[in-house]
Amino acid sequence: AAVRLRRGAAQGPRRWARDVRPAEDTGWDGEWDEAVLTFRDADRFAPYLARFADDVVVLDPPDLREAVIQHLKAVLACTGGRPEEAGEAR
């Protein structure tokens, strides 16, 4: 999977990422690195990546990106749409 990792964060995925390099001109808030993560099952990997919330962005493949988005939406729905409570559930 091609991902962006917020610099200085997301240490879990960073430990086993391949080809970590500074992202160029993201236009996003903060500094980011790009990396490659190996996985087998998008539905099983998505909850793990979702734990890192705004410190990890899945760029590719689309099925993993969508699985992470759906997982985050489900967590938000469980908190009644209050992101501050979702953060406390970690």
From TrEMBL:
Q: Which domain of life is it from?
A: Bacteria
InterPro entries, per this entry?
WCX_dom
Boundaries of every WCX domain copy: 2-76
Identify this protein by name: WYL domain-containing protein
